[in-house]
Amino acid sequence: MSGDMTHDEGHGSVAVEQEHGHGVVAENPFADPGLPEHQPRLTDIDEKVARKSERIVAGLFILSALATIAFMVCYTEVPNNTATIVDFFPIGAISASNFALGLTLGVALFSMGAGAIYWARTLMTDVELPQERHLLESTPEDKAVAAAEFQQGLEDSAWKQRPLIRRTLIGAMAVLPLPALWILRDLGPLPGTTQRQTAWTAGELIINDNSISLDGTQGSGIKPEDLQVGTLVSASPAAVLTAGDNAVNMMTMSAILLVRMNPADIKSQQEIDWGYEGIVAFSKICTHVGCPVQLYEQQTHHMLCPCHQSTFDLSDNGRVVFGPAARSLPQLPITVNADGYLVAKAGFDQPVGPSFWERG
Ligand code: FES
Question: Which of 105, 143, 201, 254 shows the greatest Cβ crowding within 10 Å of its Cβ?
Fold first, then answer.
């Protein structure tokens, strides 16, 4: 059996001659029907209808801009907590903040897209044009043709003739990226206002974390005689008991570790002065990227961070002896009050936690 195929390149029709059995010739069943005759739309022939379409497109772009602005307002004004919720069938109860942000950003994007599609379908040209295939590397002539076609497209899109659409689109596009700047706030609080401050002040009572009641309002102070040499205790400022919703944040920033060691083991005079009878207090937040340090080795007085194995020598100003942390653990100066309970002598002398750009 053998076959022979020819192409009619005029309209892409294909004639196939096929020798089959005693020489039957088959007709090509897929002739190119060509393009149907172009039918003008109402907007092509009636300027009143075209202007109505123009106003609809402009209205959608304006709605997009308003929704974008509403997104930014909602971001700052709608409380971001689970106490304020919206019952939204069929999803169920969701945070009011999430609902408002999702709704406004959704309307902004949808209106922008709907406006562009309506503009293309009603006012841009709908004349069908064949597009020739060509090599990936365009010739200078092709580039010139493309530039000319781009210009023609600009004309056909009525970009120049419809200033209302042009201006509202530019306006909506200009405000659309703003939410990206707005939500940069989610990267965290500014270091100057929070990372430099903890709840420790002179005279602040140190309470044992293990003594804090389930509702977070009761806790016990610590006396020096409660701590034996080698003891490690997680502790917080008494202010967390009355901090309400802010208690967790406060505990996170102000968490300390109390360690009692033999005073003779302490290598630094400052550390002796800032401690009380061998009891020293250090920030519990690793200075690498902020994990809680808690693995204490009594013999060496080394404190290990479980995240990346930074190791601090608590007998030597919390100095880094191993790992990626670049700074010592900050030490909290402590003493006892008139009732014999351990209290802070002052706040930390430096920010606690990971390094940031304002810190050497
Ligand atoms: S967070 Fe502690 S070593 Fe990385």
Answer: 254
Residue in 285, 295, 303, 307 to alter for ligand 1 test, most ligand atoms within 8 A of Cβ: 307
Helix, coil or strand: residue 260: strand
Contact between 308 and 354 (Cβ < 8 Å): no
Confidence of residue 10 (pLDDT cuts 50, 70, 90): very low
**Assigned architecture for domain 206-344:** 3-layer Sandwich (2.102)
Return the best residue to mutate from 310, 322, 327, 328 for the ligand 1 pocket (most ligand atoms within 8 A of CB). 310
When computed from its CA atoms, the radius of gyration of the chain, rounded to whole angstroms, is 37
pLDDT digits (tens, 9 = 90+) for 263-276: 999 999 999 999 99
pLDDT digits (tens, 9 = 90+) for 193-247: 555 678 899 999 999 999 998 888 899 999 999 999 998 999 999 999 998 888 8
**Which numbered atom of ligand 1 lies nearest the CA of 293?**
2
| Res. 107: pLDDT tops 90 | yes
**pLDDT at site 17:** 43
323 CB within 6 A, ligand 1: yes
- For residue 310 and ligand 1, the question of a CB distance below 6 A is answered with yes
CB-count burial class (<10 Å; 0-12, 13-18, 19+) for 263: middle
Lowest mean pLDDT among 8-17, 87-96, 344-353: 8-17
Atom of ligand 1 nearest to the CA of 289: 1
- For the chain, which residues make up each domain, given as ranges? 1-34, 42-128+139-187, 206-344
Query: In whole angstroms, what is the distance from residue 321 CA to residue 337 CA?
Result: 34
